[in-house]
Specification:
Keywords: GTP-binding, Nucleotide-binding. By secondary structure, the chain is α/β, with parallel strands linked by helices. Helix content is 40%, strand content 21%. It has a 6-stranded mixed sheet, sandwiched between helices. Strand 5, helix 5 and strand 6 form a beta-alpha-beta unit. The radius of gyration is 22 Å and the shape is globular. The C terminus is likely disordered.
């Protein structure tokens, strides 16, 4: 098991279900929650598809405007950012640009994921609640997200897939290739071999 701990931040407007997704992941149960004040964090081990264990510390940041300045401090140094929208919260899509720009300003080389939550609500997938999957697909393309994860903290839909993909992507980050020798390192190696050769001749 690798000892690295990856920082994962959940980002998005209030009432989109960020906390409920985190609780569903950790406990396997659905729980209604009050709005997050500032941020909460929890530890979680992701077992990748190749059975490698990835250690993460998940930060569930507040979506309330009055805590936005505080939330920004949790974005710094993040390895993963999960942007959460909700089928029934039009504001969550309207504020996505602000969240994406802020996260990118505060962390480098951060992996981004886009989530559309509350798929269990009646009429959600038909686009009857304010945000349609087509709207979010356009946004996905605009900001370069690889895909849209349609989820439900209530039923568990899409949550395992989301975190398996996060784990697999982080596993790739750990698999650092061995750099090929440069001309300078080869020259040093040759010089050392010559020194060894000279030593043998002097005996």
């Amino acid at each position: 098991m690798d000892s690295s701990i990856f920082k994962v931040v959940f980002v998005g407007s209030t009432r989109v279900g960020k906390t409920s997704i985190c609780i569903r992941l950790i406990s396997g149960a659905f729980q209604l929650t009050a709005p997050t004040l500032g941020a909460d964090f929890m530890q979680h081990k992701i077992v990748t598809r190749s059975k490698r264990v990835i250690n993460t510390r998940i930060f569930d940041t507040s979506g309330q405007d009055r805590f936005f300045g505080l939330s920004k401090s949790f974005f710094r140094g993040a390895n993963v950012s999960v942007f959460v929208l909700s089928f029934d919260e039009v504001e969550s899509l309207e504020k996505l640009e602000k969240y994406v720009e802020t996260v990118e300003d505060n962390c480098e080389d951060c992996l981004h994921y886009l989530v559309l939550n509350k798929s269990d609500l009646a009429g959600a997938k038909e686009g009857d609640l304010g945000i349609s999957l087509e709207d979010v697909e356009k946004t996905r393309s605009k900001y370069g997200f690889e895909k849209v994860y349609v989820t439900s903290a209530k039923t568990g839909e899409g949550i395992e897939e989301l975190f398996l993909d996060i784990g697999d992507d982080l596993e790739k980050e750990l698999a650092e290739p061995i750099p090929a020798p440069t001309a300078s390192t080869k020259l040093i190696a040759d010089e050392r071999e010559e020194e060894k050769g000279c030593g043998c001749c002097n005996l």
